[in-house]
């Protein structure tokens, strides 16, 4: 437990200042490292596409309860020193000590602790929490703190650009330095004169969109952190800027260009050789909409676009039409998102020091220009007891430790520019947040899209931010309020009262909600009382970040505010290999809902086979929504995501990194409704992504743009017997290992197979092209007289992915698509006598022969072939049929869904990434597509 000895101002004697720290997680006389079992592991990370080794370090030391995935990511991402050198870190102890001891030294130097004993307890408590994955700092802390490098601790930056060439060129430079350091930045371009305004020297201004082109080229050239990941950036433009329509259309027009180039055979994947020919692909774009504009949309009124220097209205536009153009562009390419300017600034604690005009790339950090924010996230599932009760008081103590450490970091942190360093030190913006909310809700029996789920999420978020500001007020009494507080005292206090009032409006449904909300009420009251006397140490306390890499470090099932991605999970095993498991949250939730052991086992087995709970044996219909996920058979509706964001937003200092995923069938009107309701419900920022809207999004199934192999013409003596124009045929739909396809078979009028066509994969994909060419080859061969049984003997039992369960009662298991197709053709077109030699039988024939002792009364039966077929089928059916082609949870879900979902492939290890807030994260190596 931590508490303050004194809350006096700067005049308090040093002997009476500082925090008294009490033990919460640790035991006196025992170091946290001595409480766990340590083991040595070998980390070898490969690129599954070509088998090359990306990273290798053997003999690393981790606790035995850390997953292989977390071990790999931390070793690869966060251990410092050249691999193979004596300086290379090889144990988690070294990593934690490097960071924690730096924090404790700085805390002692700057007067945060009452005594040396308090500092030591703080060190042990922080160490225990990190060791047991209770929380994690953001990635730059692990990269830099305690190393000879500059101690950059922030992942989020906001820049500033004015209407001058000097400022614009400085923007390019500062952005490049931030990208080089592995972080991301955002800025608002609205100060730059529009292309309709005049320059003082004569002529017309270029406008912000033209300068975006140069910045985009720069971002595409500079690889973040010296690695292969592209830069993360956010570009914002106010809705009243005269160039707003051009800004809205920038990425939509480029997406149309991508489609044309793709259709012409160019490689337009995200990492493709030809993608550099299009522009504006390295930034997220957002429009800053005002309440005035949104009310004009609501009433159907006109809206004025204003000159940047004079403020005069240059043009009046139809607000609804402009709003529709935003929705149309987002429907086409996912950009632009919206940021609700008046809502953002209504919750601004420092308006006297300037408006909030922009955000970081993921949209969760919103504060002054030329500022930064360091993040840390708590693992919510660590506070849920076996009895299903959320330990709110333990959560409060954890928040105290984390906020204290985060504030200490600003004392020793370095920054990429002098302006950012100055603003951050004066306002001390922090971004505490959490991960595993989706898992927590499921584990407590709450559906993500439910009143009870939203109430618990809101109460926990309120408690987190209330405790953070209360601790901030206590720190202000010890080491002083932030420098900008005196000027912003009244608005800061007003925002605190707004948070507290919103807390009182939380409607509770269960004992957990009530307990957490009531404790939050006390924390808000206490914090406001302390802050009114002493001020606050931090202008901002909380954000909801994506928690990509650090979420994997904490072994979280869900990231940030996201629901569970899927019920099945791809798990790496100690010693190599992997397996598919059902998320451990599922049986925990089923137990909470009252299901008994055998019922839980049956439902879990169903999920393992199908990837969802639809038709799970014994699962009551009213409980299905508890297991709804981001993707899959039962995916959460778009408004369900918006409603969760709205429930949590009043208790977050900044905003929420989250993209609302929409189905491919969603309309432009649906996008309009989401954006409009986001404003109505009080969100600060909102972005959508419609499935399959982007061509340049690489899929895990195959690369696009590859030309079909040219068919070689070879002359044979036999005469080709062509099929007549009109011939009998049949079409069969099939599923193999979750992959869906169609088989069309055409016959000669006097019987006999003469052609096949196989449809598998998306039109234009490599897989579809190869199957087309394969079908043509087989068809020509059949017409030249090659017997079908020859093809069956060659292709049956061929093994490659996709493989697994089928929907064919005669062929329950297939070792590949070709294995299934030719066994199916054999059953349909070959006589029984021929099939017996091949060991291919219908289910009815197989059953009859098994009952008769494997064909005792039957002539010419290959008993060994039959026995091996039956035993293979039996073994595979009794197994949980784990897809072997998956290399991540996202790819595993593709196999279950039978289609490839939109998500980028990791540029480091080649696996499909999965959503983490408004970014993507790779659970194979920890890489992210945004600022981590």
From TrEMBL:
One term of GO molecular function: cobalt ion binding
Keyword Nucleotide-binding: yes
Catalysed reaction, written as an equation: a 2'-deoxyribonucleoside 5'-diphosphate + [thioredoxin]-disulfide + H2O = a ribonucleoside 5'-diphosphate + [thioredoxin]-dithiol
Entry's EC annotation: 1.17.4.1
Group of enzyme by EC: oxidoreductase
Segments forming domain TSCPD: 724-828
Domain Ribonucleotide reductase class II vitamin B12-dependent N-terminal: 43-133
CDD domains referenced in this protein's UniProt entry, alphabetically: RNR_II_dimer (cd02888)
InterPro entries from the UniProt entry: RdRp_reductase_class-2 (IPR050862), RNR_2_N (IPR013678), RNR_lg_C (IPR000788), RNR_NrdJ/NrdZ (IPR013344), TSCPD_dom (IPR024434)
Database matches in Pfam families: Ribonuc_red_2_N, Ribonuc_red_lgC, TSCPD
GO biological-process terms attached to the record: DNA biosynthetic process
Sequence ranges assigned to domain Ribonucleotide reductase large subunit C-terminal in this UniProt record: 154-689
SUPFAM superfamilies tied to this protein: PFL-like glycyl radical enzymes
Cofactor(s) required, per the database record: adenosylcob(III)alamin
PANTHER family: RIBONUCLEOSIDE-DIPHOSPHATE REDUCTASE (PTHR43371:SF1), VITAMIN B12-DEPENDENT RIBONUCLEOTIDE REDUCTASE (PTHR43371)
Function: Catalyzes the reduction of ribonucleotides to deoxyribonucleotides. May function to provide a pool of deoxyribonucleotide precursors for DNA repair during oxygen limitation and/or for immediate growth after restoration of oxygen.
Protein name: Vitamin B12-dependent ribonucleotide reductase
Species this chain originates from: Amycolatopsis taiwanensis
Gene name, Swiss-Prot/TrEMBL: nrdA
